[in-house]
Design brief:
peptidyl-prolyl cis-trans isomerase activity; Chitinase A, domain 3; Triger factor/SurA peptide-binding fold; unfolded protein binding; globular; periplasm; four-stranded antiparallel beta sheet
Length: 442
């Protein structure tokens, strides 16, 4: 949860200044995105935010027109994701936004009033910040929905990954540069992209620019402004096209250009290290039952909450939990068992659900609380320390494979969504690629 909140806070401070349409005076349109627009003032504030993050090292930033185009593309993608989330029924309530903001304030050792004051000093109003948090949560839920509906990992894949891990214990800190290609690229577009990626590699090889600076200036990846950083990855988290190549590289080395599904890439091994050998894996497990009242339709949220409150009052009055769950729960997987969920770890059903269970004592019943699934009442019946050993290792590998698949599918989804959208740049950013196309070593 802390990692998520930190990520939301960083994203919010980057994006929030760009979302003040309702507060800003009428100004020029920078980009038309389907039926929405990005105002020039939004784009200017977002660019200024990036420049402030690079204070003291602005030489790493691309020329103004290229930077404006990169930031504009980020805003375009954000608008498209938010619009897609809303059109597919994803919703974020005011209460959920309030809870997230409260948690962010607490994580930064502030109350909400202090956070509001800090935002104002940074040039962001609380309404802007709330909008950015809501957008981040919408995108997060859109990604979760994609994971639930499109991503699966078979036992055979887990077995193969376990076998591949035998004798391999290295992790790699990676960075990449992407020169993107559109779907159905023409031979001319392919040749141009290949020439550009080769030119970028020549600049790096000659020492005229380090890898991170080249990524900021030339990469088409969404993480370009972070220097193309991909973080630490184990061998099974690296796409098979790169894995064998990476294993033979030393820190600082850069691959030859590689053609992938999204375009041409350069990959750098920043660092490498030996992963710690797995030992006994002790985790806290909980046994609990729950009653779920779904609230998928925003119009029924209040009705679902009222029903949950009524059931909770009956439980406080001595009603049998299992009987009420069988009669009223809308979770088909546990309803027939009186709501019994068996033994599970705290994060197995999501952080919101897990934190409620962890806060109870054995035998305790929670007040109604809401998650993305609906309103829950939970009765905790037991807790224990368990050595999950091989089970834990398999779960970690399954999660790793799923995360890699989701990353690939999400990137494909974003490319497809961007390719289908009507996007009209009304600023100098539209000519940025031409202004910075001389990357053939000149």
């Amino acid at each position: 949860m802390k990692k998520l909140l930190a990520s939301l806070l960083v994203g919010a401070f980057l994006i929030a200044p760009a979302y003040a349409q309702q507060l800003a005076p009428i100004d020029g349109i920078a980009v038309v995105v389907d039926e929405d627009v990005i105002l020039q003032s939004e784009l200017d504030r977002a660019v200024a935010n990036i420049r402030s993050q690079y204070a003291g090292r602005t030489e790493q930033l691309p020329p103004p027109g290229v930077l404006e185009r990169q930031v504009a593309e980020r805003l375009v993608l954000l608008k498209l994701q938010v619009a897609r989330a809303k059109s597919t029924g994803v919703r974020v309530s005011d209460q959920e936004v309030d809870q997230t903001i409260g948690a962010i304030a607490a994580q930064n050792q502030m109350n909400v009033d202090q956070l509001t004051a800090q935002l104002a000093r940074d040039g962001t109003s609380m309404p802007q910040f709330r909008d950015s948090i809501r957008d981040e949560l919408l995108v997060q839920r859109l990604r979760q929905r994609l994971a639930q509906t499109q991503i699966s990992v078979s036992d055979a894949e887990v077995d193969a990954a376990l076998a591949a891990q035998q004798g391999a214990g290295s992790q790699y800190h990676l960075a990449h540069i992407l020169v993107a290609l559109p779907e159905g690229a023409t031979p001319e577009q392919i040749a141009t992209a290949q020439s550009k990626i080769e030119g970028v590699r020549d600049l790096i090889q000659r020492g005229e620019m380090d890898f991170a600076a080249a990524a900021v200036r030339y990469s088409d990846s969404p993480n370009a402004l972070e220097g193309g950083d991909l973080g630490w990855r184990s061998a099974d988290e690296i796409p098979s096209a790169f894995a064998d190549m990476v294993k033979g590289m030393r820190p600082g080395q850069v691959t030859e250009p590689i053609r992938g599904p999204s375009g041409f890439q350069l990959l750098q091994v920043v660092e490498s290290r030996d992963a710690a050998q797995a030992g006994p894996s002790l985790v806290t497990q909980y046994q609990a039952s729950h009653i779920l009242i779904r609230a998928d339709d925003p119009a029924n949220v209040a009705k679902a909450k009222a029903k949950a409150d009524t059931l909770h009052a009956r439980l406080v009055g001595g009603a049998d939990f299992a009987a009420l769950a069988r009669e009223n729960s809308e979770d088909p997987s546990s309803k027939s068992r009186g709501g019994d969920l068996g033994w599970f770890t705290q994060d197995q059903f999501g952080p919101d659900f897990g934190s409620q269970v962890a806060a109870l004592s054995d035998g305790g019943i929670s007040a109604p609380f809401r998650t993305q699934a609906g309103w829950h009442i939970v009765k905790r019946t037991g807790s224990r320390q368990a050595d999950v050993g091989d089970e834990s290792q398999r779960a970690q590998i399954r999660e790793t494979i799923g995360r890699r698949k989701l990353e690939d599918e999400w990137n494909r989804f974003l490319r497809e969504m961007r390719g289908e959208a009507f996007v009209d740049f009304r600023t100098g950013a539209a000519d940025a690629e031409q202004a910075d196309s001389t990357t053939n070593g000149n």
